[in-house]
Every structure is written in structure tokens, then in C-alpha cells.
Design brief:
Layout lengths: L1 H7 L11 H39 L13 E3 L12 E3 L7 E5 L2 E5 L18 H9 L12 E5 L22 H4 L2 H8 L1 E13 L4 E10 L12 E8 L5 E3 L10 E9 L2 H4 L3 E8 L7 E8 L2 H4 L6 E9 L2 H7 L1 E9 L4 E10 L12 E9 L2 E7 L10 E9 L8 E9 L7 E9 L5 H11 L5 E6 L15 E5 L1
Antiparallel strand pairs: 1-2, 3-4, 5-22, 6-7, 6-13, 7-10, 8-9, 8-11, 11-12, 14-15, 14-21, 15-18, 16-17, 16-19, 19-20
Length: 479
């Protein structure tokens, strides 16, 4: 108030005093300094309290756990000890679990297994199921006193469409009918040209010398009316040794003149079969299979002294049958260390319409077959009202490395029907016992483990018995 009065009447003040505006500035600076000191003190107190709380949390330890070493005392078990354990473990073990019940604190020792990676298990316990299924055999003794009163067989997917049992219920077949399999196969097969080659067994090299001379009258696979053929050579049944010729661009009568040597003894030659697979190379899509030439009885067709020339027909799958039933695209990948076979069903196209509306409800069933026995069966989801379904579903099978050479896959495209039985739309096979694309694809997967390999498969009506073994019928009632 005095300062205010003095500032109001400056004539009455002392001449030695400072002006009023200077004193006001000093007072404002003092108040600002006091406010800053107060804020700093508050921040310091909050920081200190926070630090104390964090420090207390970090320093907290249960009373049961301490840094003392683990002491294990083993004492002999006496008859009068009752249920007292012979091993006493101190409470300092880190894996001890504290249990409080009725106000009494009891510590129970719990054995903790060491951590390990589960991607590569030490003991492949997953393969025990595979071995158990493989070794299982159905053995019905005639001494078992039971009578089957009704046996229901599930839906049979052996052929396309409904099966008429009366067509197969015949007492006897003539010798011509029983031996007509070879003639039927020859009638159904189509000739896709001729292959000219020579065979010779070289005693000095101890190997089979195969020379591919020329291929004639090959079918055109391109839109321009030509093909880019090349030939792959295999030795059956293991197919571990393979060779491949050069690609001849735009040529339906290519001249190869290439020689290949398969190292083997004469005894091994008696057990081998030579296969030529003729392909059309395509830079931007899959290579088309033109046909096969299979040479049996190699020990009779080879001469150690000179080359033997042969000209054989190239046999292929009828294209109209492939277009009629459609195709399915599969990707295979095998992990030998983990023993896992992954079958990825990608998509299908140009399937056969099975419904009245001209569409279908397809799903794909994959059956794992080993040594003529069904081991595992998996299937995809159902795609409604489509003839070109896209699945993109992975089906994983456990296959031990010691059994991978005996494994085959039966692929079936089935039309789902909510009311009646499901109908087979087409099937294909992959594996050592398969022919054509199925065998070549399997070999490529085995030669390139851990790498997914995709392939289009043409669908056929049925599969051989060794690739599609019948299922055991189920008994519904016994007397």
C-alpha cells in the first residue's frame, strides 16, 4: 500500500529511493523464482517416491527362494518310516511350488524337464502310429463262434458314378475275359509317335549304354502346331538314376543322338526296367507329358558285343479323357528330418458336373497307402456349386524316412451330396507305383527335399488295386 501510495505521489517520496517501476519488476521476479522453487521441489518428491516404489518391487523375493545352493539328502528307507520319502529336497530349489492350505505352508517338489527345441524331436514318437498301422493285420480265426447277421459296406469310390453290383456278379469268366486286361489297355492307350534307340551292355564299363537316336511323329502341344520335346530316362523300380536330353525347339521329329550309361551289374540288369518319358517344354507353364516308352526284360534285349536297335511306340494318355474329368493341382514337400509329408491341394479345373443344375460340390480326399495298406486319410473342405474350386489347403502326414520309398498317395475328387451317397468325380495317384506324371512328380519331390513342388494331374476313372486298397467292411450286428 505504501508502495502504491508512493507511486501515486512521487513528489512526496525520498529522492534517494528507486523509481516505482523498478521495485515492481523486482517483486515479480521474486514471485517467479519462488514458484519455480516450489515446482522443482514437487517434482523431486514425486521422483523420489517413484524410485522407492520401483526399488521395493525389484528387491522383493519370496522367503522360500534364496541364493543358497540346493541340498539333496538321500537316506535309506526304513521299514518304520511309513510314507516318509527317502529323498529330502531343501526349499531352496527354484522349481519348488508353494502351496498354502489351512494356514500351513507346504512346498512340493516338482520335476521340471529341461527346455529343448520341439521342431526336431529327439525321439520321433509321432511315427509310432504309422508303424502300428503298418504292422496291424486283420486276422479272423475260424474258431471264433460268431455269426454275422448284417454287414454294411460304406460307399464305394472305385468308379465314377453309381456302382451296379449285378454287373459284377458273375460265376465264371472265360479265359478271354480274364486275360483281356492287356488288350483293353492297348485299346485305350493312344500312340503319340515312335522312339528310335539302341541298347548295349558294356562289360568294361559295367553299365547299360542307352543311346536315343530320334523321335518321330510327335503330337503338337503348342498353339502354333509344334512342340519343344525332350526325353527323361529312368530305371525302375527305384528311379534314383535319371538322365535328360536336350530340348529341341519347334520340332516334331527331333534327332537326339545322345548316349547315357547306367552303372549296374548283369544281375541287377535282370531286375530293372527302362522307361523313357517324352515331355514338351514350356517356358511359362508346366511341361506337358507327351507319352512313355517302357522297356522290360533288359537282359534279353541287350547284347554285350554290339548295339541292338529298337523302334517302339510312344504311349500316352487320351486327351479327351483328361479333358472330360478335369485336372487337379497338387504341391508336395517332404521334410526327411522331421518325417513329414505335406500335400497342399491348390485347386482344380474343368471338373465333371454331377448335379442336375450342371454344377458340383467337390472336395478332395488324400489317402496315404504303404505296402498295400491304408495308413491315413485326410480331406479338404467342400466347395459349393463350382467346377473350378480353389482350395489352398495343406494336409500333413507323418511318414518316417525308412518308409518313404514304400509310400503312395491316392487322390480322389468327390462330389458331396447331402441326401444320397457321395460320388467320385475322378482320381489320380502319386508315388513309386504311379505312372506318368505321378511318378515323375514323386521323384522330383524326393530329389529336392524341403522344397515344395507343384504339378497338375489329369483325373482318371479309377486306380489300380495296389494304389487304392479296399476298406474293411464294418459289422453292424452280431449274434
Amino acid at each position: 500500500l505504501l508502495l502504491k501510495n508512493r507511486c501515486a505521489n512521487p513528489e512526496e517520496g525520498n529522492r534517494y529511493l528507486r523509481p516505482c517501476h523498478t521495485e515492481l519488476a523486482d517483486m515479480s521476479l521474486l514471485l517467479l523464482l519462488l514458484a519455480a522453487i516450489f515446482v522443482f521441489a514437487v517434482v523431486l518428491v514425486v521422483t523420489y517416491l517413484t524410485y522407492r516404489r520401483l526399488y521395493d518391487n525389484l528387491q522383493f523375493k519370496p522367503k522360500v527362494l534364496n541364493d543358497s545352493p540346493v541340498h539333496v539328502k538321500i537316506a535309506p528307507r526304513s521299514p518304520s518310516s511309513g510314507n516318509v520319502p527317502s529323498i529330502t529336497i531343501s526349499h531352496s530349489l527354484p522349481e519348488m511350488k508353494e502351496v498354502v492350505a489351512d494356514g500351513v505352508q507346504d512346498v512340493a517338489a516338482k520335476k521340471v524337464a529341461p527346455l529343448r527345441q520341439i521342431t526336431l524331436p529327439a525321439v520321433p514318437t509321432r511315427h509310432l502310429t504309422f508303424q502300428r498301422q503298418l504292422s496291424h493285420r486283420l486276422d479272423l480265426s475260424t474258431t471264433v463262434p460268431f455269426e454275422v447277421c448284417n454287414m454294411q459296406q460304406r460307399e464305394s469310390l472305385g468308379t465314377v458314378g453309381a456302382i451296379q453290383p449285378e454287373l459284377y456278379d458273375q460265376e465264371g469268366l472265360t479265359s478271354g475275359e480274364s486275360g483281356r486286361d492287356s488288350t483293353d489297355l492297348a485299346a485305350q492307350a493312344t500312340t503319340c509317335g515312335k522312339l528310335h534307340f539302341t541298347l548295349k551292355y558294356d562289360i568294361d564299363l559295367e553299365g547299360l549304354v542307352v543311346k536315343i537316336l530320334q523321335a518321330k511323329d510327335l503330337p503338337s502341344k503348342d498353339f502354333l502346331g509344334s512342340s519343344d520335346p525332350y526325353i527323361k530316362l529312368y530305371l525302375l523300380p527305384e528311379r534314383r538314376k535319371k538322365f535328360q536330353t536336350r530340348v529341341h525347339r519347334k520340332n516334331l521329329n527331333p534327332v537326339f543322338n545322345e548316349s547315357f550309361v547306367f552303372a549296374m551289374t548283369l544281375d541287377e540288369l535282370r531286375q530293372r526296367t527302362l522307361q523313357f518319358s517324352v515331355y514338351d517344354f514350356d517356358r511359362f507353364s508346366r511341361n506337358d507329358l507327351i507319352g512313355h516308352v517302357i522297356v522290360k526284360h533288359l537282359h534279353e534285349m541287350c547284347n554285350p558285343t554290339h548295339e541292338m536297335e529298337y523302334t517302339m511306340d510312344i504311349v500316352g494318355v487320351p486327351q479327351d479323357k483328361m479333358d472330360k474329368l478335369g485336372e487337379v493341382m497338387l504341391s508336395l514337400c517332404y521334410l526327411p528330418t522331421a518325417g513329414r509329408l505335406t500335400v497342399t491341394v491348390i485347386k482344380a479345373r474343368n471338373l465333371k458336373p454331377m448335379d442336375i443344375s450342371g454344377s458340383s460340390d467337390p472336395y478332395i480326399k488324400v489317402i496315404l497307402v504303404c505296402e498295400g495298406k491304408r495308413i491315413k486319410k485326410k480331406k479338404t473342405s467342400v466347395k459349393k456349386s463350382t467346377l473350378n474350386p480353389v482350395f489352398n489347403e495343406a494336409l500333413v502326414f507323418d511318414v518316417p524316412p525308412e518308409n518313404v520309398d514304400d509310400v503312395n498317395l491316392a487322390i480322389k475328387v468327390v462330389d458331396y451330396d447331402r441326401v444320397g451317397p457321395n460320388e467320385l468325380m475322378g482320381c489320380c495317384a502319386v508315388g513309386q507305383l504311379a505312372t506318368g506324371v505321378g511318378r515323375d512328380h514323386w521323384l522330383a519331390v524326393m530329389d529336392n527335399p524341403r522344397k515344395p513342388t507343384a504339378q497338375w494331374y489329369p483325373l482318371v476313372d479309377s486306380l489300380p488295386a495296389e494304389l487304392d486298397p479296399p476298406r474293411t467292411p464294418s459289422v453292424t450286428c452280431l449274434k
